[in-house]
Specification:
alpha/beta, Rossmann fold, globular
Length: about 250
């Protein structure tokens, strides 16, 4: 039984962070919502020392939506260095950070480069940590449809896909935070693996959208060349429980 009392969630107002905070609170832990909105900023360091007092773990799900490679590297790298330095001073036991499955194989995508800078900063920090690499979220399906739609047809890369619900991501992050640090990486993916095109088709069918969907082996994934297994875990991984059909019903 864990003796964990206090967990700081960096990015605690976002999609995953807010869910993690709720799960922690329901389990009886003190969950600190760390966000620039309430004066806790990992990038600038503002408010970190106070927020981390007495904390046993930190879950970092902070994010920057940008296509600027250098801005992403700076944001994720600087934030992680500030966080882990402050955590060591405060005696925090475990740093948990959310990243992306196979990020190191998708470096042509600027966002992946930023996440790699984040992973590298955490691993080099000397702070005990676990990097949780997740597959793409069910909640991003609409964004994916919009990105690949051309003149009424949705053309997607001819690759495998194994998306996961945000609820499952939050639950896994909390479980990892309660456990002992791995000082390494674990993968996290949804319960179903199938061609990308089939998930998009399922999503559109549920919306009543008759747009044709096609797989195209020449397409990249947001600027990164891909092969069949580029977006899915290649070894052991934590498996989510919520299928795409269940998520669509909810």
């Amino acid at each position: 039984m864990s003796k964990l009392k206090k967990v700081v969630v960096i990015g605690g107002t976002g999609l995953i962070g807010s869910k993690a905070v709720k799960l922690l609170q329901e389990a009886g832990y003190e969950a600190i919502v760390a966000s620039s909105r309430n004066g806790i900023n990992a990038y600038t360091g503002e408010g970190l020392a106070e927020a981390l007092k007495g904390a046993d773990a930190v879950i970092d799900v902070s994010n920057l939506m940008s296509f600027d490679r250098q801005a992403l590297i700076d944001f994720f790298g600087t934030s992680s260095r500030n966080l882990t330095s402050a955590e060591k001073l405060a005696g925090v036991r475990h740093h948990v950070v959310l990243s992306i499955v196979n990020a190191d194989g998708l470096g042509a995508n600027p966002y992946m480069t930023g996440k790699l800078a984040q992973e590298e900063a955490v691993a080099a920090s000397g702070q005990s940590y676990t990097i949780v690499r997740a597959t793409q979220f069910h909640e991003f399906m609409e964004t994916l449809v919009g990105a690949y739609a051309v003149e009424g047809t949705v053309n997607v890369p001819d690759i495998d896909f194994q998306p996961i619900a945000a609820d499952d991501v939050a639950a896994a992050l909390v479980d990892v935070a309660l456990a002992e640090p791995k000082n390494g990486t674990v993968d996290l993916a949804g319960p179903e693996r199938a061609p990308f095109v089939s998930f998009i088709q399922t999503y559109l069918n549920a919306k009543g959208d008759a747009s044709p969907v096609k797989a195209d082996a020449t397409l990249e994934y947001f600027g990164a060349p891909v092969v069949t297994d580029s977006l899915v875990p290649g070894g052991d991984y934590i498996k989510g429980r919520i299928t795409i059909a269940e998520w669509l019903r909810e």
